């Protein structure tokens, strides 16, 4: 199946813009058990239930609130929530570059492939190869579907991968865990134990091959589904029509790469605000001002049943 474009925009660092499109780097391969009405085989959706009374309530009677302290909530209107959303931009705005070994795995959340568009192949290749040569990754902000994300731009083979990161406030501290101290001596490990452990790891070491690992639960369920289907145990289900998705915006256009690199270096890596008027106008048109992210709360838009 052809890769679907999820987002179009540009990578921005200094005065350089690289028009790109995002493609999902993963797919959900687990079993999705849909709810069906056994009497009519109609799809069954989720109901809005009052947890105290157990009764279903209409959408018009639902408001959104944020718990402030024990049982005390602040109710927010849709207008107030909408005003707090970050301003939508079509830019993966790189704020800094860091060594590629400094991002702990616990921060990685979801990867996207980044592909060049609108004749952006050369400058795309320049950024990719520069990151590979310097062993750096780009720390960026990006807004996808009105939600602001922290992200890391990583070269991976011929591609750039944008991996969304968890915010630091979302990572739990290790202090509450009862972990052994670092270092073999401090942890009470003997040289013999270390040597045996190393030999076992060496014996089990091989090349990474994702094809060797499969979801046995999914395989067993799908085998059961195929067997029952061959036996004629099938039910017809008519799904309700879904509304079409809006076309993604077109990416930004690039201008002379050498000129932008020279100007970025002169301005200390991207201070476009002091550049000459014509350049300032172009840069401003391509990169809307970024709002300071709103304070994190536990209130979010209603969760989707399946990730986009």
Secondary-structure map with pairings?
Layout: E1 5-13, E2 16-24, E3 64-69, E4 72-76, H1 78-84, E5 91-99, E6 108-116, H2 121-134, E7 136-144, E8 147-156, E9 159-165, H3 191-203, H4 216-230, H5 257-266, H6 277-286
Parallel strand pairs: 1-5
Antiparallel strand pairs: 1-2, 2-6, 3-4, 5-7, 6-9, 7-8, 8-9
How is this structure best described in words?
The model is unreliable at 245-254 and 270-308 (pLDDT under 50). The longest helix has 15 residues, at 216-230. This protein has helices spanning 78-84, 121-134, 191-203, 216-230, 257-266, 277-286; strands spanning 5-13, 16-24, 64-69, 72-76, 91-99, 108-116, 136-144, 147-156, 159-165. It is built from six helices and nine strands. It is of the alpha+beta class.
| Total number of beta strands | 9
C-alpha geometry = extended
What amount of the residues lies in strands?
Answer: 15-25%
- Model regions low in confidence, pLDDT < 50 over at least 5 residues: 245-254, 270-308
Widest β-sheet, arrangement of strands: 1-2-6-9-8-7-5
Amino- and carboxy-terminal Cα gap: 16 Å
Q: Please, what is the average pLDDT?
A: 76
Largest sheet: 7 strands, mixed, barrel
- Rg measurement, Å: 25 Å
Helix content: 10-25%
């Amino acid at each position: 199946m052809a890769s679907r474009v999820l987002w179009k925009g540009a990578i921005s660092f200094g005065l350089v813009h690289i028009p790109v499109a995002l493609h999902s780097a993963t797919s959900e391969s687990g079993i999705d058990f849909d709810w069906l009405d056994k009497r009519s085989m109609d799809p069954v959706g989720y109901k809005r239930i009052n947890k105290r009374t157990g009764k279903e309530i209409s959408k018009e009677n639902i408001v959104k609130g944020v718990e402030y302290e024990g049982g005390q909530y602040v109710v927010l209107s849709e207008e107030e929530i909408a005003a707090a959303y970050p301003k939508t931009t079509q830019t993966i705005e790189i704020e800094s570059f860091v060594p590629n070994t400094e991002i702990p795995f616990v921060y990685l959340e979801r990867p996207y492939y980044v592909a060049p568009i609108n004749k952006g192949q050369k400058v795309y290749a320049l950024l990719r190869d520069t990151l590979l040569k310097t062993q750096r990754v780009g720390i960026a902000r990006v807004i996808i579907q009105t939600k602001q994300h922290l992200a890391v731009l990583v070269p991976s083979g011929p591609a750039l991968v944008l991996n969304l990161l968890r915010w630091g406030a979302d990572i739990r501290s290790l202090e509450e865990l009862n972990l052994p101290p670092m270092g073999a001596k401090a942890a009470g490990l003997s040289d013999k134990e270390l040597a045996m452990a190393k030999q076992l790891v060496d014996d089990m070491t091989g090349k990474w091959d994702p094809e060797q690992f499969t979801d046995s639960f999914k395989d067993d369920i799908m085998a059961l589904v195929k067997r029952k289907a061959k036996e004629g145990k099938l039910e017809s289900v008519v799904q309700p029509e879904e509304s079409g998705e809006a076309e993604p915006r077109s990416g930004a256009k690039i201008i002379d790469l050498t000129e932008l690199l020279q100007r970025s270096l002169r301005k200390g890596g991207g201070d476009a605000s002091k550049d000459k008027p014509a350049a300032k106008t172009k840069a401003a048109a391509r990169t809307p001002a970024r709002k300071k992210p709103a304070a994190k709360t536990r209130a979010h838009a209603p969760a989707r049943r399946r990730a986009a």
